[in-house]
From TrEMBL, chains A, B:
DNA-binding region, residue intervals: 37-56
Keyword match Transcription regulation: yes
Family annotation (PROSITE patterns): HTH_TETR_2
Alphabetic keyword roster: DNA-binding, Transcription, Transcription regulation
Transmembrane domains' residue ranges: none
Protein name per the record: TetR family transcriptional regulator
Domain HTH tetR-type: from-to ranges: 14-74
DNA sequence: TAATAGTTTGCAGTAGGTGCAAGAATCTGC
DNA sequence: GCAGATTCTTGCACCTACTGCAAACTATTA
């Protein structure tokens, strides 16, 4: 029978994975994300290159070090949200849930800024976000019925974060959290009340 | 002195570029976008692999065959929009401008569906869209002042298109154009009037 | 037609990424 | 604590994407 959680094997895998993400992030910060090779990361984590690719499909995944638990929690938040809570409010809570953790472990600033400097990283982040998005949309559709609106709410929440981070780079005086809040507010109430379709 | 436009050299470059995108798209459709190699594309277009990379930085760019003229026209539309036209309305016109051309040349369905099947293609598209987005946001900020709102409007328009295409795949009975319109409408008026920030 | 400027190409090299099979480590039932 | 099954690691051979360089070629210009 398979040993559940506490096995040595399990722990070693977690260790290896942690060592790889740690090394990847550190080296990426030191040398710039595009100047790190998989060879270096593997060597720093003391495993073979081949093993690296057993853990991550792409170099970028190691640097991003995505936490699968975040998606789980987000889905849970959507499923257990009280009826009276509006959908975008739920999304706001999800965003802040993740944001809080990233801030508390101090990896947001390091990793976040890194991501914004590298198109390739950003790209892979978005790529892996696509699947999350799909799952979140499905969960939200389950709740509110309208699939178009559900998808728009989920993707808009994502866009709000991205826009906030980008804008924060050009105007560092405004806090990212405030920008996220402002973006959510705009999206909720409408980004253009004067819109008129079909003035062709 | 440099010959302006009609030179043989100029025409040959256009020809080569066209041959490459044509071959890339055709092969991608035949064999699936991830099973095409640059070798094949180059051979089909009767040029060397090295020449391929003189024209496109990535394989995906050839398949996407992005038309630089689209961005130019979009920027022009933003700059010359009448004062009374609301910003999202302008974005709607841009979207339909491109849509119309893609439909008329018949490449939307072929290329569009292809793109949606390949994460790699999708993300090269988004990646190159990021730069477009930046330029469009700047132009729109110029016009309406508020950079956050401008960025949100531009990115939301992009998201609307993406969501519409995705949704069209699962519910093919609704036309993509209608879905785009519905998405724009929702975004304009607000995706969640009951949103309340900070119910933590 | 000769000089010039721009294009194509082959070649050599770096790096990401995968399949396979052998060997090492862990886990299981006894 | 041991034998056998399971799982992980690793080296190796291989494919593909992509870049820099210098030589060969071709259109343009005077």
């Amino acid at each position: 029978m398979k040993q559940a959680e506490g096995g040595l094997r399990e722990r070693k895998k977690l260790q290896t994975r942690a060592a790889l993400t740690e090394a990847a992030l550190r080296l990426a910060l030191e040398k710039g994300p595009d100047n790190v090779t998989v060879d270096e990361i593997a060597e720093a984590a003391d495993v073979s290159v081949r093993t690296f690719f057993n853990y991550f499909p792409h170099k970028e995944h190691a640097i991003l070090g995505r936490n699968p638990a975040h998606l789980e929690r987000a889905l849970e938040l959507i499923r257990t949200a009280p009826d009276e809570q509006s959908p975008l409010t739920t999304m706001w809570m999800i965003v802040h849930d993740v944001l809080q953790e990233l801030l508390s472990e101090g990896s947001l600033t390091r990793r976040g800024e890194l991501i914004m400097t590298s198109p390739s990283l950003l790209f892979h982040l978005m790529l892996s976000s696509m699947d999350d998005e799909r799952q979140l949309s499905e969960a939200l559709t389950e709740r509110i019925g309208d699939p178009l609106r559900a998808k728009l709410i989920v993707t808009s929440a994502g866009t709000a974060c991205r826009v906030a981070v980008e804008l924060h780079k050009t105007t560092p005086d405004s806090a990212p959290g405030d920008l996220v809040d402002a973006a959510f507010q705009l999206l909720a109430q409408g980004i253009d009340p004067d819109y008129q379709k079909g003035q062709v």
